């Protein structure tokens, strides 16, 4: 629904997304290189211990259990559009979000979280943890999945508000000249339109739950 | 040295950085909330098992072992400057890097890696893993630390090349008018200067080692 909300706007186009998932991978144990990596388990729903145990039976190398939170990439028409999304993402708790400007000028906004798990479980085919630990780990992962869903929901609601508030420049200036012919005039008009019609800047940043662990947050808004 | 390299340029100013570290934290076990979090261990050097064991003796809640890779935040004068840094960061393996444009127009480039560890070790004061597992974990963390240093080195070298190549617009156009009076003219001149003098666009992206685990990388360049 979030993806539909964005794609309904001309100025946004979602490129890829993942709601959040638990994955269990098996690698050949050469350390950092993720070559020869096999996926033993992928689930976007709450995880159960027996699935992890079954996955582990197939393992021959170094198995890693991961929780990967929500990721969303959105192509944006203008930098201002990406800033709006970025602001809502940060306010919703997605603190590693950022904007990418490609070589051809393509603007992408990436919604990312700091909220992960990455746990080595076995080495050279030998399980290094107890079944009880795996049960505990599954519980922690499911808690993170729940928190992840709460953040997605916050982002979704924040985005609805912000998009409603941000009257697009095209609506205000239907007679605006083609960008390629008069970039400067078009830009100035857009900026004025945004200033008048974009109260999303006034959203209060929410107090994020992870602040005590990250020294760098204050500059990310 | 990397920080000095950037700060020697007028168009860059580093805001915060961490080379990479291992941390062991103790929380009150309420799950996601990182309130009442105690740091039991922080090291920027290779980790040793005995330090982790000593740290664990002080634990009363839920202990988590983390490897956090290199992070660097750089304030950039213009978007083009941030794009240059971003391009070098991605080519060096820092694939979660991104640009942030603040409410006041402040442009920050964040260098971030996907390369982490986050492992719950104890629950309500009770250790959930063996000493042998902690030894293994320390080994994995140290491997990641080494790879992290290789990436920092790659980033440093790539940055030296890119900065040498990118002759700043101010040097080419010392007579350029003040930005606030004539943004448009200044911008057009800058763009021309960049086109002539910025061969960093021609850097070959390196084949990153984590590609098989991330579906979203192709759009991050």
From TrEMBL, chains A, B:
Superkingdom per UniProt: Eukaryota
Keyword terms: Methyltransferase, S-adenosyl-L-methionine, Transferase, tRNA processing
Keyword tRNA processing: yes
Pathway(s) this gene product operates in, as recorded in its UniProt entry: tRNA modification; wybutosine-tRNA(Phe) biosynthesis
Enzyme Commission number, as recorded: 2.1.1.282
Chain positions covered by the region annotation Disordered: 178-214
Gene Ontology terms describing biological process: methylation; tRNA processing
A GO term for molecular function: methyltransferase activity
Function according to Swiss-Prot or TrEMBL: Probable S-adenosyl-L-methionine-dependent methyltransferase that acts as a component of the wybutosine biosynthesis pathway. Wybutosine is a hyper modified guanosine with a tricyclic base found at the 3'-position adjacent to the anticodon of eukaryotic phenylalanine tRNA.
Family named by the database record: Belongs to the TYW3 family.
PANTHER family in UniProt: TRNA WYBUTOSINE-SYNTHESIZING PROTEIN 3
Name recorded for this polypeptide: tRNA wybutosine-synthesizing protein 3 homolog
Organism phylogeny: Eukaryota, Metazoa, Chordata, Craniata, Vertebrata
